[in-house]
Amino acid sequence: MNSPTVVSLFSGCGGMDLGFKKAGFDILWANDFFKDAVTTYRKNIGNHIVLGDITQISSDDIPDNPDVILGGFPCQGFSIANSKKPEYDQRNFLYKEMVRVINDKRPKFFVAENVKGMMSLNNGQFLKDIISDFRDVGYNVEYKLLDMINYGVPQTRKRVIIIGNRIGAENVFPKESHGYEKGLKKPLSTKETIGHLCKVHTREEPLKIKDSNSGKEKTVYNHWAKTKIDDEFWGRKYNVSQFDICDYLKFWRNKAGYGTKQIDDLFGYAYTAGHWFRKDNNSGSIPNPDDWWKLKDILGFDDKYDKQVTTMIRKKITYETSLRINNWDEPNDTIIATGSEIHPKSPRRLSIRECAILQTFPDTFKFTGKIDAMHTQIGNAVPVLFAKKVAKCVKEELEKPLSMKPQSSRRKTVN
Ligand SMILES: C[S@@+](CC[C@H](N)C(=O)[O-])C[C@H]1O[C@@H](n2cnc3c(N)ncnc32)[C@H](O)[C@@H]1O
């Protein structure tokens, strides 16, 4: 049987595509308008990627009838930290390009990926609109919020995965393999994943190290890191215990007769208030000064903690004060596109290679561009290992004998 085929939109440097390729798919055509990402893609995956803005590319220039269309449509406008009505950001409507190409090319399946923040945009209406647009062009669509840590990726990374098909097949999501519950493998810690590079001198050029498994020499590419670790940030002047503030806020919230959800609604947040009322060293948080004052108006609490919570000063981030110091013996936090975190054990940022390893790119995958552009490519990517697991699920469905259900050939005019 011929390999199933893929057309890939918003391909970036190719994390998702590489996963599909490793699972046995043949990528026919890919596209991105980020030049460095396209160069990286060409070097590592293939020449089939086209550099250009998808809004300017006609469907006639895209191969017909691929088995699958992939698309991690852009997420910049989805940041929940951005309170300026991100739902109006034009970048949020690029998913319509994916709908357009799917409608014109009629793949059997499609797979899309996006950040968790997309789920709460416009109180969840935005995601509903996306799903209904995919359904309108004839696809049976399902989505799930998955944490890549449960699939063998050594990193907490929550993403929305949308799968759709028009052949009456099942939209199968991969099974969890890793986690802290019985029967699952324990996720790898940062130390276990990138510990071997901790003391290796970082540089732009490739370097050789001895592979601890085989004992043979191997080349390490892109072990290049920023060494600036003393940025400044706004921090609290006084030490405050999150547990104390949490107890205090809970007391006043109960007294005022509010539930957490009501507080979220009053702030227009998705889940933030929950973190203020959660006594937890990992996910509990103390409101920032603006939120504190607003909360005080709502709950009417006294002045006990006002000074401690709201007095802010400029502080230096140093190697020792980096939050990441805790992450050495635990899985890493999400690798992001806007830059790398301070290394938990070395006075430098995580290197390009270390971020790539945490995103499960193979050691042979070489990135191109300036250091920031490489971090963007890696932080944007779908972890290769996770993509491969999704790809296997789709491939199994494609290989099953055709279901008795009728195939939808519905095609709609998309504006
Ligand atoms: C989240 S990233 C996708 C990463 C990719 N799925 C991977 O696994 O590596 C989104 C990509 O969309 C690209 N993009 C954004 N707007 C675009 C447009 N109008 N045309 C083509 N590509 C675009 C960005 O350059 C970025 O690489």
Summarize the structure.
By secondary structure, this protein is α/β, with parallel strands linked by helices. It contains 13 helices and eleven strands.
Question: How would you describe this structure to a colleague?
Answer:
The chain is of the alpha/beta class and 415 residues long. Among the domains are: 5-181 and 375-399, Vaccinia Virus protein VP39 (Rossmann fold, 3-Layer(aba) Sandwich); 232-316, 434 Repressor (Amino-terminal Domain) (Orthogonal Bundle). 30% of the residues lie in helices and 14% in strands. It is built from 13 helices and eleven strands. It has helices at 15-22, 35-44, 95-105, 125-136, 190-194, 242-256, 260-267, 272-276, 289-299, 306-310, 352-358, 371-380, 384-399; strands at 5-9, 26-32, 49-51, 68-71, 109-115, 140-147, 158-165, 207-210, 217-220, 232-236, 312-316. The strands form three sheets. A seven-stranded mixed beta sheet has the order 3-2-1-4-5-7-6, with helices on both faces. It has a two-stranded antiparallel sheet with strand order 8-9. Strand 8 and strand 9 form a beta hairpin. The longest helix is centred in the last third of the chain and has 16 residues, at 384-399. It is globular and about 70 Å long. The relative contact order is 0.17. Residues 79-86 have low confidence and may be disordered. It binds S-adenosylmethionine.
